[in-house]
Fold this protein.
Amino acid sequence: MSTASRPKGRKKINWAPYLLILPSLIYLALFFGWPMVRGLILAVRDDGALLTLRSEAEHNSSLAGQLPRGTQVGILDRQGNLIPQEELGQSNLLTEVWFQIRGQDTEGQTIEGWTPERRIRVRESDESGAPVSGSVRSILASDADPLTRIYTEADEDSEVVGRMEARTPVEILDQATLEVWLLISGEYENKTIEGWVPARYIRALSDGTQGRIEQGDKSRFTTRYIQRMVNDRFFWPALRTTLLLIVLIIPAQFVLAIIMALVIQADLKGSGFFLYIFAIALGVSDLAVGILWYSIFTQSGYLNSILQGLGLIDSPIIYLSANTRYWILIAVWLAEVWRATALVMVIIVAGMQAISREVLEAAEVFGATLWQRVRYIILPLLRPSLQVALILRTILAFQVFAVVIVLSGGDVMTVLANETYRQYYELRNFNVAAAYASLILLLSMITSFFYLRTVRAQEEVAE
Amino acid sequence: MTGAVDVQSQVGQVSPEVKAIHRRLKRRQSITRALTYLVGILISLWVLIPILFIASLALTTPAEVRSYPKGILPFIPLSTETMAFFLSSKGIIPGIRNSIVVALITLILSILIAAPAGYAISRFLFRGRDVFRLSILAVRAFPIVILSIPLAVVFLQAGIYDSVYSLALMHTALALPTTILVLSSVFSSIPYELEEAAMVFGCSPFQAFRYVVLPLVMPGIAASAIFTFVLSWNEVFAATILTIENRTLPAQVLVTLNQSSEPYQFAGGFFMMIPALIFIFFIRRYLFNMWGQISK
């Protein structure tokens, strides 16, 4: 009986966990994996770097070749394709509107035909905004034909019905929207490529026979965002400060956290109270901590108040200014140690709880001092916890952001996360911001890898 | 026989040397104990005094905030004026509302998605379990900064940029890895035998979960939910990048920081700390469950 029911049961158990983890997998793929990949792509992909040329003025005609953005091209011909009514909503098309008009031509006859919108000044519109009447514009260019040509169809290649003089009043009967295509030719890699492209990609020069590719429709790999990041005047200061902060913050945090953990693990009365106090900072945002330390280091802040109260200074010292960067560094350092040590402490306490009490008691009985117990028993046994705390803290330290903004105004002293924010928020430069974010990711991964390697190497030496 | 008696008498009448060693150990222990207290109190002061500073500024009159040298409570007048000024500033009440909405959605979404996964990790030995656990850990270690930029671009394209809901989606992604690990450790602390017993007595697996496991894990889930709430309440980078009009409180305070007065800044800083002061108290015993799990 039981053997018969087992396989069934096992099969059921096999599927349940997968179903249970499925939602989180989907969620993380959607909102973590995918944006992560996109972020990396954003940093190295140049959208619109290449323009596709077509053999005919149709979106689905065969390829004639590709030209990079910025190429000087000759404009050989133009063509307007009538856009069907249902596709009019596509805002990204460069369009040209033609009017069907009725009016007197130069010979005094009433004619009907099509002319581009730019040749007509609209005088009257109906309630829906559609133009009903207007007049022919005068042409300003000296060498241009002073008369306006009227065509049989909304196409400059169609037959001319007649010509109209400037200021002739006309009725507007209908209008048509055209997508303009240009036949261009340009050189790329010593080959001349000729083909049709939608006009919106081309900036035509004044005479209309020459132009430049403004924007392409295909992307390609580029390092120009990374170059722009590296050449930014804030890049090296930001990188330097970030690394300096990590070097300063992390050792201080670990020493303080280990002391905190020893106090909590000492079985004192009121260790719950100590735990609460030590852990408070765990729930405080970096922005609030920045403001908190600003209240201490600002010119009329508590540090000056105390020093003056003790009679050590006569007038308040200015700490947070461009001339006293080291004070900003100290303030950020104190703020980060104040805030983020709690996390390290919690991880270390959790690790200490796994160390058996007998081992420590035995060491104590044999006369090991506190320092010896920490150095030879607690620290070696804590290695996995320390490793995790180290990785986590370093990664978080790469993201120090609000504290620095509050204490330095964001300009005097800057860090990588702050530059990501500036590129995105102030300069609206998504790609360079993504390059900064990717750099932070890269540095985080390198340090994590480095920590894992060194710890393993030490273990191998120990064996 | 005699040997045993000898040993007993030796243990019974402790020699003076042993007594001396014992006394020395005792004395050393009490010195250590006193020193530990001293260190504990010093560290507590290091944590508490800055909080007292900012609390003093937030809970006094604006005139007192601008004065120099600055005093601390209870030596300066206690007043709600500064806090009231902050709360009545433009965008603060909507910001608080947005922050709470985002945090609540994040909390509900992340618990709903993480609880099944946490249960699966703690109860089933399935192929890929370790890979799943490790990848969750790896996700936990990725920087938030890199997520915000592409998500902002995607949300812009999708037309859900600048909304509390899209921000909650992002915060859920941030909270999910930790929540999964914490909940799996919470479930692990409930012996599977209890569920088995319930099923022996005729419960379906779902009933066993609903009536036996769930009541027992509720405190742990609540602690994790509180932590998620605080995480979302505090998050400032993504909130600033993903919202413009519908700012959360930290984002609102950050973008108006340069043009604002000191009473506003200090009251804002203190106001943002309040949830931490309250909630950490309730979940302090669960902290090791939460973060200890990460290093296992």
Q: What stands out?
A: Chain B touches chain A through 99 residues (CB under 8 Å). Chain B has two domains: 2-81, 89-295. Confidence is low (pLDDT under 50) at residues 1-5 of chain B. The two ends of chain B are 51 Å apart (CA to CA).
